Amino acid sequence: MSNCNFPKVSVCMITYNHENFIREAIEGVLMQVCDFEVELIVANDCSTDKTDRVIQDIIQNHPNASWINYTNHTQNKGMIPNFIWAMQQCIGEYIALCEGDDYWTDTFKLKKQVDFLERSEDYNICFHNVKLFNQAENRFENDNITRNVHETSYIEDLARGNFIHTPSVVLRNNFTIPKWYSKSPIGDWILYMIAIKDKKIKKLDKIMAVYRVHEKGVWVNKSQEYKDEFTKISINLLLKNLKSKKEVYKILKNRLGNVNNKKLNFVKLLELIKNKINSKS
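Below the sequence we write its predicted structure tokens.
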């Protein structure tokens, strides 16, 4: 399969200092068996390790290297700006995501998801189950990060919180990323809230990718206070900018209130502990 024609699918892959992971990520894309054109956009955010060397080796030696459209930035953009840049390079009818530290495990993953979206115009997003790989303990784990949802879900479900792992998703490329998106510290969930529009989300009940949990991971290893603050910023951006149903705004406002209450309770707890310590001294 040549990528000289207009691609059906653009795979968006950002990477930074993934020298130990990037080969598995890229080769998981290049092993796909499908009857349509695929392009792989790889955006290296000026890695300081050997990530570039590994990618160059794949480009030189892999039989499907012609799928790859590779850019190694000369200056570090930061994760969200690099992701926006990479998404802007995607010209396919569909966009699949896979970051440089995750990887796909099913050779028919893209075909299964694209085939569904091709026959289901009332869906804008298709995702599937993943396995987690705990890098520190060198073992696979069941997904204990995201909540379970029905095979068909809606923007109201998504507004309650993200349940889609990045390496599992394929999006219909019929949306534009607004300028305000660059202010969001959470890239994936906000993107899905934009991309779904008035359509539906399909979950394929198959494990077709691995989400890697490691010490340099952007989200999983952050403190709950850190996650709450980033969630608060992202919800405020959606409330201010996203055009959607009244029910969605209600759900987002309730989530924002819950985050604020949690922070207020935490502050009160600290104050209580401080007062108890002072009363004993």
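Residues 264-281 have pLDDT under 50 and may be disordered.
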